Amino acid sequence: MVTKRKIVALGGGTGTFTLLTGLKVYENLDISAVVTMADDGGSNKVLRDEFGLLPTSGIRQAIIALSRDTSLLRQLFEYRFYQGTGISGMTFGNLFMAAVSDILGSQKKSIQETCKLLGVQGHILPVSYDNTSLVATYENGTEVLGEHYIDVSNPKVAKLRVVDLRSIPKIKIDNDAQSAILGADMIVIGPGDLYTNTIANLIVGGVTEAIEDSHAKVVFVMNLMNRLGETYAYKASDFLTDLSKYLSPNRLNYIVINNDLALSNSILKKYALEGSSPVIDDLGIIYHQASIVRAKLRDSHKPIRVKGDKLGRSMVRHDPKLLAKVIYGL
């Protein structure tokens, strides 16, 4: 029997969804997604405020990405309501998992049963089941509470650097997530919003310790674009400088970065209006002990806007197949 390579994707949101979608075609991989649970915007705010549940959007996206089911059931989990006032913007998948959590009396069991139902090939693991909120401190001393408010960028701090990210209250890594990281052959960090997805996981108690203690190769996938509120005007080296505050740069083995950002003027102008621009590659051939891996990674297809989605989504994304091919070859 062939031993499968154990890969852990550490992140959340669209970036992790993209990575998992590409990796799942490789049959000799044992994939685990360790997902941030700090999201408090959109439908996740409703789950937190009205149901007392931890956010499930990142979990739902990971489930869909690793699902082998191609039937109507998968389409239902992706479906987003766009009519009415009560559930407009909510996804069927989030509501379903909220209902199963209520029936079983456990959000953990709800995730496990949902994975079985959709034939997930892999493991979907919340980084923690503890409830918390993110607090970002900017270089002028301003503090912003809540993942959503960091993500949408307060005009007062939109172009300032984040100098510290912490969670209130402090939380600890879940045992299953810890075991996955400790037993991994490879840990892939990113792509995703640097603070609200990537570092949000690293500040959970026990996560960086597990990465340090693991014998896994550690890969950091560089974002394609920077954004207001988190990484305004950042170059690639700026991402790594900030990351090094939370994870030793000597623990990185590979840094994967896109070398094709030939974007149209219309797309560049749209992003410029949002205070965003492509991440400039100012790296050499090595960073501390990590090799720099450059490849064409951008998805040339424009993402389809989903009805009822009230949050802004990036038009420039990694290509699942191209990204997974590079990761698989490391």
Could you name the key traits of this structure?
Gluconeogenesis factor; LPPG:FO 2-phospho-L-lactate transferase activity; 13 helices; 35% helix; three-stranded antiparallel beta sheet; Rossmann fold; cytoplasm; alpha/beta; eight-stranded mixed beta sheet; 330 residues
Task: Say which CATH homologous superfamily is assigned.
Answer: CofD-like domains
Which percent range describes the beta-strand content? 15-25%
CATH architecture: 3-Layer(aba) Sandwich
- Fraction of residues in helix: 25-40%
As for the CATH topology, it is: Rossmann fold
The number of distinct helices, counting runs of at least 4 residues, comes to 13
What does the model show?
This protein is α/β, with parallel strands linked by helices and 330 residues long. Helices cover 35% and strands 17% of the residues. It has an 8-stranded mixed beta sheet with strand order 3-2-1-7-8-9-11-10, with helices on both faces. Strand 4 (133-138) and strand 5 (143-145) form a beta hairpin. The chain is globular. The two termini are 23 Å apart.
Question: Topology, pairings included?
Answer:
Layout: E1 5-11, H1 13-23, E2 29-35, H2 43-51, H3 57-66, H4 72-78, H5 92-104, H6 107-117, E3 123-126, E4 133-138, E5 143-145, H7 147-151, E6 162-168, H8 175-182, E7 186-189, H9 194-202, H10 207-213, E8 217-221, H11 236-243, E9 254-258, H12 265-273, E10 286-287, E11 290-295, H13 320-328
Parallel strand pairs: 1-2, 1-7, 2-3, 7-8, 8-9, 9-11
Antiparallel strand pairs: 4-5, 4-6, 10-11
